[in-house]
Amino acid sequence: MAREPFVLAIASHKGGTGRTTAACALAWLWGQAGIRVALADVDPVRAARLIATEGGDCPWDNVRYFDRLPDTDSGAELVVVDCPSLMDPTIDRVLRNCHSVVLTCVADPLSLRTVPSAARVLATARVSNPRLELLGVLIGLYNSLDVIQAPMLGKLRQMHGDLLINPPIPYDPEIRDWAAFEPAAKAGYEAMIAALDRLTTPVTELRRHTSTAEAAPTPRPVPTPA
Ligand SMILES: Nc1ncnc2c1ncn2[C@@H]1O[C@H](COP(=O)(O)OP(=O)(O)O)[C@@H](O)[C@H]1O
Ligand SMILES: [Mg+2]
User: Fold this and answer.
1) How wide is the angle at C-alpha 186 spanned by C-alphas 159 and 176, nearest 5°?
2) 211 CA from centroid of ligand 2 (Å)
3) Homologous superfamily of 6-215 in CATH?
4) Where are the domains of the chain?
5) How much distance in Å is there from the Cα of 3 to the middle of ligand 1?
6) Taking the model in full, what pTM does it have?
């Protein structure tokens, strides 16, 4: 019988934090690594479709595109979910079907509020889905030369400790260009995959997961709202 896939949500309070880019980059990289991936484009904006398909199927190795959460018998080992905003009324239904979440944010002052607010949504979602685990907080589009972003990275690190995934994803103009997306994504997100492996759930070792019950990791605490 097919195993239930591991479902990883890429989520954020607001848009523009690199959520879709992260979901696509991770789906592509894990597909390259030989994992059967479903990219679930659950955000009604359907931005992932623009990156991962040319109107038809996804051409990436081992990656299938879905405009919804796939059925558990889709054949995927890993589902990467490009979520709608965590403020969207449909989010609870999405999170109910997820095992883990990566929260994306940018290194700006608003994130001092949006990440705790996102964490509150996750805490609510845990009521109906206690297995939901926060894997980490990912900073996207990071420019170390920006006078605001560098100190904000320090603050976010202080607030979230080892929940902050290091290193942040660097701002890289190439990643905005579809022709350059794959090499740029590789450069930016390989470190993130290594970082995720250091966290409690080694995502690249999915094949070792035999069932959700056995695979269920100890939930990591959500960040304390400020
Ligand atoms: N690391 C990055 N470097 C440069 N541009 C990026 C990076 N990540 C995302 N972008 C660009 O920023 C914009 C917002 O990213 P996107 O992934 O769509 O965010 P979200 O899904 O959170 O709204 C897009 O134009 C995208 O191409
Ligand atoms: Mg998006």
Assistant:
1) 80
2) 30
3) P-loop containing nucleotide triphosphate hydrolases (3.40.50.300)
4) 6-215
5) 33
6) 0.90
